[in-house]
Fold these 2 entries.
Entry 1:
Amino acid sequence: MAEDLTKAARKTLPTDRVAREQTSGNFIKAISAVVWKDLQAEFRSRELFLAMLVFSLLIILIFNFALELDIKTRQSVTAGVLWATFAFAGTLGLNRSMAIEKDRGCIDGLLLAPVDRSAIFFGKFISNLVFMLLVEIIVLPVYSVLYNINLFQLGLVLVILLGSIGYTSVGTLISAMSVQTRTRDILLPILLFPVAFAVILSAVKASGGLLDGLTFQEVLFPISLLITYDVIFIAVAFMTFESIVEE
Amino acid sequence: MQPRPVSLKILDIFSVVMLGVAAYFALVKAPTELVMGAVQRVFYFHIGTAWTALLGFLFASVLSVLYLVTKDLKWDRYQVAAIEVSLVFFLITIALGSIWARPAWNTWWTWDPRLTTAAVTELVYIAYFMLRQGLDDPDRRARFGAVYALLGGISAPITFFAIRLYRTIHPVVIAGSNPEAQGGFSMTPSMLTAMFVALFAFTVIFIDLYWNRIRLGNLQDQVEQLKLKVTM
């Protein structure tokens, strides 16, 4: 009897491990498939990226005249202007990226796929993040040229990356909810901004500090707050996404 | 329709009485504060509503988890009730705080960490009701509500830390950032009594309103089901 058990154990163990490796491989494959699908669709239509980019430039234009960005003001408000721009352009992208899935019935196809639902979340999250980063990559040099400020510092890039991760992680989750409501076009920013308040605030603080010439050590606290926020909200989104998309 | 249970009726009467007692303690029994004068009396109700509202929001986050694990709509009704009553209580807290701040700080509002966190928290739960309003399917409404209430409950403390960090680096605001720093006072024993009476009274009132709201939610649910039966 005991011998049978060990035999059985010996038999099942390796296959178990293979199965587990397969599922973790599948998980990554599923994520990259979703990301690839989004990027390819975007590459062909260029709707989202262009809209986000033009919108960001228009926001900067409005801020320019609303705040009269002369040399003195610029010093103190650059971080705030940048993050307000990213946040507004971000909602535009988040809304659109989920609305496309919903309108063309694509989300049903995704949900039918025999993969873990959280893989779909991570796929959407990563593609949203890529769009947001692409916009930021263009907005930063444009802003640098327009206002003669050097925005290309390693610390600032890190802050922008961390801030965008936090913003899009909770944004992807909330946009998956808001597209299923009747008032979906107006609801996303209303739901997202109060929850993402902390991430915007710490990102503005950290980037403002770095632009003021503070060292990385001095802005370590807002940066660690950003990391905390990112970790917590990715974990929460990972755990709750399933209950948002299930029918 | 079931009649209101007797224990709820008793609690209704008790909470009205407690409101009167708390008002008596705050307005008559407690001594007038030396520096701020009569406006300090707002403080007792301010603390009473704030305490119950914050506990209510915390409780709602726990109910979120319970709902998401069990998928029992009962928890959803409990959550809506908790958030609705807390939202009103918290609004009262903010309004009373504003009334006190005008003479004490010489402004209705300042962007101090507690005030900002309070405003953001209030906005989160207003958004919660807007989200629910946009959804017709009760299951989906419950699921989304639970997830959003959980997000709000988790983000509130992080927001508080984020704002604190913002203010500690700007020393200009520091003096105003701490309620004890401007307009603080040390309480006499009779003030303490008035505060505890107010705390107890508002806890009772909260439980009473909460109970009534749950009962209302259950009745609403029955009406919806009856309507469904009629149309089928």
Entry 2:
Amino acid sequence: MGSNEAVILLDTSVLIDLIERRRFIPEPLRDLEPSLKCIRRRVVARLVSMQCLTQQCFVLRDIIDGEASRVIERRFLESNLQVSPSEVNRILSEVLRLYRINIFDKITDEDDNTMVRIIEKVWAYLTEKGDPCSNEVLDDDDAVDCIYHEFFDIRILTTALVRGWRLITTDCWLACCLPIIIGDAVPRLLRTYGIINVYEVEVRWNAGDGLCHASIYLITGKVAGNPTTGEQCCRACCG
Amino acid sequence: MTRGGSIEVIREDGITRLVNDEGLSRHLLIHMECVITRLLLYNNAVHRDNESLVRSLSRVLTKLLIKHGLLNPGVVNVKNATARLLFVFDALVILGCKLREGSETLGTAYVLLSESLSDLALGEVDGTASLLYASRLSLRGKLKQAGTFLTRRLGRSLGSIVETTCSMARISEFFDKTGVYIDGDDVTEERRHGKQRGGNSPRY
């Protein structure tokens, strides 16, 4: 798995899983039967350790300053607690250091232009064909809202596509649904850890002036079996 | 045994007792090494699959750690054997990292044993045997030899394995103290949050 050289981009979902890689949170909290999450976090930690030991791993600067920090701060707020931005930074920096993950902050005009085109494509899909999960066609406001909330995963996928990088995520929608909205996705089961599977999803997007591609490692317990098309994978993710 | 609405799976009092009793910690480690080695050899001899090994091992080690007061007795009822074994891993990491402050070799041996179990739980049998052997070397005070062995067999340095494991344990301790739990699924929930608020169907 992953023997060929590639630059690895990590999704926020992976970064957050790494923070709690060793801890088991009984889900629901009063039940000792642990959920899939427990095993998934270990699989994520293992895969990232292996990949980042021999290959270059990155997270986007936007992720560190934006989505990842926001997720941590929100969880504290939900518990009526506060965490200082410096504490959040310290935790994130420590995780990056330990797993040899670099910060990528060289977003170019090409990234921005590609992202605009991908957003247009997502917009058209949601307002014409509908949400790939519900098949519900969205009105303009809902489509804007959806894209607003999907900003970071669109940014991450765009960065990987522009450079032909490999992406690691636990977010099914990012790995299967977003790719079928913008182009094509072909999933392949790489490895199973009992209730957690690792898939490699080959994503292709016709940029007009050429074909962009990226491969995504998806670590999930939401997709069972061996889907062979992006649509099957996406439907499984929708649950 | 509850904290912040959650069950205390790993018992602090048990950890403290073993940290303060190096002899007992050493005895427990040797006992676990024997159990794991015996089951690995048995498994190999009768060509059982890894799943059966994980099932047997998780059952035996869970009972052992419950007996020593390291795990909540309720863990024995956890149905998923991999998850049960990862609970054992979790307890040994905390114990090992704390023990290192007093005895580097004993603490390191615990950390390596825990990593060995983690590899086993995920079906990485080669890593399991190497880490188990390195743990034995560490327990006998042969840290340098353990480091050389791990670099040669797994391409990982002893220092980085221990540092990563114990640093992550410290981060988890920070979250433990606050009672805040975070998870990769928080990210995906945040991404779909607007959709739910807008009344559209959830994606997962």
